[in-house]
């Protein structure tokens, strides 16, 4: 299956993408991984991206699109892929459409993870990260440490990242609504959108997504 995963920040896209890709036996292709791989390997596209990033500028769509096309052309993506974080806007969605058509391919589904805005703010603004190891993540409501402000795993200080404050989260949501959300209408016009609730446990959301994709694939 060839799937695009969309949803607001805090919807759990990265977590769900990993489980879905494993269940479907297809590669999980995330924008972040694309950038890191190309920059670390010193590819032409990676060097271009780094020059924009080092200057504090946004990486142009054509660079991101080029990276995505190269990744989708690799052998492990021959039977499908799950795109996470790409396309990020309608122009990227149109470029993806064109690239797939050239290869005689098409998307099977666009999985839209739906989460109420207040829940997004609660999820992200409540996160606390360990200063010693950023993989140690806690939450003021959902995963409280035994001692407030102290990591259960290593004893490091827990803190709130600057981009996790409520004000910043709401700004990120505004960007999502203005730039990324329009791709849902773009794909809905093609009959590709499958919307599910991203509320509940990780396993519940994964099961819900798999059921929706199976139903869509059988339709």
TrEMBL record:
Cell compartments where the protein resides? Cytoplasm
Q: Which residues form the Adenylate kinase active site lid domain?
A: 127-163
Q: Where does ATP bind?
A: 10-15, 127, 137-138, 200
Query: Which enzyme type, at the first EC level?
Result: transferase
Recorded metabolic or biological pathway in which this protein acts: Purine metabolism; AMP biosynthesis via salvage pathway; AMP from ADP: step 1/1
Q: Which residues bind AMP?
A: 31, 36, 57-59, 85-88, 92, 161, 172
Is ATP-binding there in the keyword field?
yes
Main localization category? cytoplasm
Q: What segment(s) does the record annotate as region NMP?
A: 30-59
Which reaction is recorded as catalysed by this protein? AMP + ATP = 2 ADP
User: Which EC number(s) are documented for this chain?
Assistant: 2.7.4.3
- A single Gene Ontology CC term: cytoplasm
Q: Which domain of life is it from?
A: Bacteria
GO MF, one term, reads: ATP binding
UniProt entry keywords in alphabetical sequence: ATP-binding, Cytoplasm, Kinase, Nucleotide biosynthesis, Nucleotide-binding, Transferase
Domain remarks in the entry? Consists of three domains, a large central CORE domain and two small peripheral domains, NMPbind and LID, which undergo movements during catalysis. The LID domain closes over the site of phosphoryl transfer upon ATP binding. Assembling and dissambling the active center during each catalytic cycle provides an effective means to prevent ATP hydrolysis.
HAMAP family the record matches = Adenylate_kinase_Adk
Quaternary structure note: Monomer.
NCBIfam families from the xrefs?
adk, PRK00279.1-2, PRK00279.1-3, PRK14527.1
Family recorded in the similarity comment: Belongs to the adenylate kinase family.
Its function, per the record, reads: Catalyzes the reversible transfer of the terminal phosphate group between ATP and AMP. Plays an important role in cellular energy homeostasis and in adenine nucleotide metabolism.
Q: What name has this protein been given in UniProt?
A: Adenylate kinase
């Amino acid at each position: 299956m060839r799937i695009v995963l969309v949803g607001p920040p805090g919807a759990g896209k990265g977590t769900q993408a990993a489980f879905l890709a494993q269940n479907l036996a297809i590669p999980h292709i995330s924008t972040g991984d694309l950038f890191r791989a190309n920059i670390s390997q010193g590819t032409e596209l990676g060097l271009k991206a780094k020059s924009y990033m080092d200057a504090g500028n946004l990486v142009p769509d054509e660079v991101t699109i080029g990276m995505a096309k190269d990744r989708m052309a690799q052998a492990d993506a021959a039977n499908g892929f799950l795109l996470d974080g790409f396309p990020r806007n309608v122009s990227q969605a149109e470029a993806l459409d064109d690239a797939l058509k050239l290869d005689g391919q098409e998307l099977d589904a666009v999985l839209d993870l739906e989460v109420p805005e207040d829940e997004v703010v609660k999820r992200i603004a409540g996160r606390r990260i360990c200063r010693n190891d950023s993989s140690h993540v806690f939450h003021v409501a959902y995963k409280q440490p035994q001692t407030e402000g102290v990591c259960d795993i290593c004893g490091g200080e827990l803190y709130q990242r600057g981009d996790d404050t409520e004000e910043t989260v709401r700004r990120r949501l505004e960007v999502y609504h203005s730039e990324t959300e329009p791709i849902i209408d773009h794909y809905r016009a093609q009959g590709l959108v499958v919307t599910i609730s991203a509320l509940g446990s990780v396993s519940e959301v994964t099961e819900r997504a798999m059921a929706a994709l199976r139903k869509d694939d059988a339709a």
